[in-house]
Amino acid sequence: MAFRLTYILSSDYFVDVEIAYGSISHDLPVLAEHVDGKLKIWLSPKGTTIQLILSLFETEYMAFDSMSKDFVRTFIFPRIAQYVPSSTRQGAEAFLKTVQRTRETFEYESSDLDSLQSIWADYSENKISMSEAAQMSAAITAKAVQFIGKRPANPS
Known about the structure:
Layout: H1 2-13, E1 17-21, E2 30-35, E3 38-43, H2 48-59, H3 61-80, H4 86-97, H5 110-124, H6 130-142
Parallel strand pairs: 1-3
Antiparallel strand pairs: 2-3
């Protein structure tokens, strides 16, 4: 979850963050602070929202990505908006207004899931950094991108 959130914040909001887990007072799910020139976000693993998203990774992976994006938009963005570049903030706020639009679903190939699990294993064993894991997972999930547009009319 941490490297997925890192990737979302990097690609959608252009913010470099470090994510850690820990107990937060007042049962807050998220705490964001600017520490030594770096944006650091703590997640409470005991929080119900965090537990739900973590359980989706194992039980309903197709929902994991969209719930992670919703979590960033709902819980993290309001706490880090001042650190998001202004044009990105305006774009994100516009995105918040259109969030109710219909979404299309897609499926990951089982080989892609295996690759994501191996990235997680490498990160867990400190073989790669969080940013490397986020970049590698982005490369895996982006290799099957489909673009949909209008087909030009046939001149015949």
